[in-house]
Fold:
Amino acid sequence: MTLFLSYLINGISLGSVYAIIALGYTMVYGIAKMLNFAHGDVIMVGAYIAFCATQYAGLPAFVAVLLAMLVCTLLGVTIEGLAYKPLRQAPGLAVLITAIGMSYLLQNSALLIWGATPKSFPSVVSLPPVSLFDGRVKVTGETIMTILANIVIMIALTQFTGRTKMGKAMRAVSEDKGAAELMGINVNATISVTFAIGSALAAVAGVLLCSAYPNLMPTTGSMPGIKAFTAAVFGGIGSIPGAMVGGILLGVIEILGKAYISTELGDAIVFAVLIIVLLFKPSGLFGKNVREKV
Amino acid sequence: MKKTLSVMLAIALVLVCGLASADALKIGVIGPMTGPAADYGLACQRGAIIAANEINAAAGETVIELLIEDDEHNAEKSVNAYHTVLDNGAQMIAGTTTTTPCIAVGAEAYSDRVFMLTPSASSTAVTEDKDNVYQVCFTDPAQGTASAQYIKENNLGTKIAVIYNNADAYSTGIYQTFVAEAATQGLEIVATSTFTDDTTDFSVQVTEAQKAGADLVFLPIYYTPASMILQQAKGMDYAPIFFGVDGMDGILSIEGFDQSLAEGVMLLTPFAADATDEMTVNFVTAYNAEFGVTPSQFAADNYDAVYALYNASKNAGIDASTSAEDACEKLIEQFKSLEFTGLTGTMSWNEDGSVTKTPKAVVIKGGVYVSPENL
Structure:
């Protein structure tokens, strides 16, 4: 029983990292209706910025996180302005390919700037670990911090899109870009703000990802990025609570699959579960089933 | 005036050396002195120089001359370097340092019939199907056998867990020989778990080892995943002995790595610079005086290579006039029965060119390698 519990806790801690990345994915997809495959690499840039700020400049952790958020926000808005905005009227496939290209551009730039040698990311979380069940199961400070960050971000995003003027504009753009524009909403500005928020979240995700799993190199963001994308689809892409639930479930499935079936098949099990869920519920767990009208 | 004088002195020196070395044995030393693997090549070069200096000083005349060439850890450049040293009269090669160039040079040396003793190229492909290429270091899979022997002899653990990368030939090869030898040595393996290249979450593997009650975790893997395993084990309050092989070498140089995580980690390595035997102390002192740094295992490996070649040549009656081809056949005969004690242990060689010697290990204390005997 203790063994199962400790696997469960490990799964939740891995899943909470997926969830925080998935929040960024789902936010951008829900509003701009595009898959930003470079999201995982913005995470990696955020982690490198925080690493440099703490290791080279000696800044305190929270300043480093703020700096990473600032740099990633600028990066996200720049990427959107340079690569995605000119393609607004182009078919969805063109934007998707551009996003993949952008992902490789970021990875290779990081390779040039920071080199291929992996760096060990010192944790920015100073919360003490918590022992449960007479110390038989231990929850690390990083896990607690990531889950707290998830909840705060989820509530903040739901409130933001539901209550503020910009949030309403986002929902309008998400529903019908053309009609929103006719009603006087600046679609381009709205999408830019979406990217800014998504990229700031990516910086937070990068710092938390590397605090929990300290191996930092130019490809650090790609696998978690793909898993988080899967989590977002699993939970119903575009749905904010769906991203969080999907992320945590995915982490738990991965760890339990590794523990009870095979450590090598961990990833295969994750994707098999995704396929099964999508067969029965094509829009994901929390997704709205919207029929495309022809 | 000063300049002319120094030029004349230099010419005189060359002449004297040239004359003195007319009947010296010529050994080619090839390795990367520049480029990304320069650390290894420079250490090998320096180890060879110390060995040659000692031998020449003991003989009272120049009996060994080293012909040193840089290969930048590049196979083509290494073959060129090999031809250069042969053109300059090399009769045998103490090299090359790194595996990929060594395979390329080995193929040439095999068809040219030139004897090679590599200090540090550890792949089995280096000696495969070549009767004239020998190694001073353990082969990659032999490290598994050696680790099991070392663990048993020193009673490091009774319940052993293994975590290895089964997407990697190096790691899998060591794992297989380790398991085979552990069975003969009567070591109990209580948990075996695997991972693949992209893995960053090792919680399942570490939990399995912990729940199985393993008091030693064998990690035949590179230092990057090892660093994550150490971090995650600490998060679970799990502190067995972690035992690595040469892939663990480098864990202390990861940028940002918290060195306290590696405290007590052991790794199999042929040489520890702090050992107190007379031979090591003399070598480290001479090396430090000459180059101002502490020698690494590579320096010790090539020091041994030069000595082994010198001893074997003496036994076989090879002198400055022997051709490289004749020397090759005589050395092959010699190495079948040669037993030699060097810095990295007492060695003998197998038919396939691999070495047999007693394994040694170091333990990490306060961010440096220490011999377990010196604790």
